[in-house]
Amino acid sequence: MIVKNPKFEISAVGPKQYPKNNLPEIVLVGKSNVGKSSFINTMINRKRLARTSSSPGKTRQINFYNIDELFYFVDLPGYGYSKMSKKEQEQVGTFIEKYLFDRKQILLIIFLIDIRHSPTANDKLMYNYIISSGLPFVILANKADKIAITKVDSAMSDVKKQINPIGDITTLPFSSERKIYKDDVWNFIEQYL
Ligand SMILES: Nc1nc2c(ncn2[C@@H]2O[C@H](COP(=O)(O)OP(=O)(O)OP(=O)(O)O)[C@@H](O)[C@H]2O)c(=O)[nH]1
Ligand SMILES: [Mg+2]
User: What is the reported pLDDT for 8?
Assistant: First the structure.
């Protein structure tokens, strides 16, 4: 897909600020710093439309990016940022859950994990939450550029074994750094649009 006119629409702190039109929403979830905001920039060929940072905890609100009036990419805050107080972490958790639970126009969840590491306890909680929501989702193993290209296949098998041993959920590698695998992810998304 070639995106022509992606626009930042709103940073929401609650349902009252969510967009009022009924465009479908494709939502990014994953731990802090895994690359959710970077993913959006990569997919739409923009360097800085979504704000990213090398330190975790950058995205704190629910950001809606209108993609050519076709759908929204929805950038959520990450979970598991240990420098946030317990209270802040709980607030972020409630925030994310409330959006995922309430929002009827969610078309697809893009669940990012880090290809280099075993899924965290929070990743597993999120996985179970998504499964119980019944919403369609895909798992992306991000930062694939951080391992040798010859090791990507075996890293992908490890990721699948750990997070989805039954193997019924599509799991793809991704890298915002190298921008490879982008076409595979667009092909996957387009099945839903
Ligand atoms: N090497 C590499 N770095 C990446 C990749 N994707 C993101 N990053 C880097 O990881 C850091 C975090 O990226 P963000 O996109 O801000 O992460 P996020 O998931 O939105 O983080 P929060 O907003 O804190 O939840 C930045 O320094 C990015 O440049 C990738 O595919 N490869
Ligand atoms: Mg972010």
Answer: 97
6-190 folds as Rossmann fold (3.40.50)
From 47-51, 69-73, 81-85, 136-140, the region with the lowest mean pLDDT? 81-85
Residues 6 or more apart in contact with residue 131 via CB below 8 angstroms: none
* Predicted pLDDT at 79: 92
Q: What is the pLDDT of residue 120?
A: 94
What length is written for the chain? Answer: 193
**Mean local confidence (pLDDT), 121-146:** 95
| DSSP code, position 34 | S
Strands 25-30, 6-12: pairing kind: unpaired
Q: What are the residue ranges spanned by the domains of the chain?
A: 6-190
What pTM does this model have?
Answer: 0.96
Does ligand 1 have an atom closer than 6 angstroms to the CB of 6? no
Q: Which of 27, 36, 38 to mutate to test the pocket of ligand 1 (most atoms within 8 A of CB)?
A: 38
Query: Who contacts 80 (Cβ-Cβ below 8 Å, separation ≥6)?
Result: 31, 32, 89, 120, 122
Does the Cβ of 63 fall within 6 Å of ligand 1? no
Environment class of residue 97 by beta-carbon count within 10 Å: exposed (0-12), middle (13-18) or buried (19+)? middle
Supply the Cα-derived Rg of the chain in whole angstroms: 16
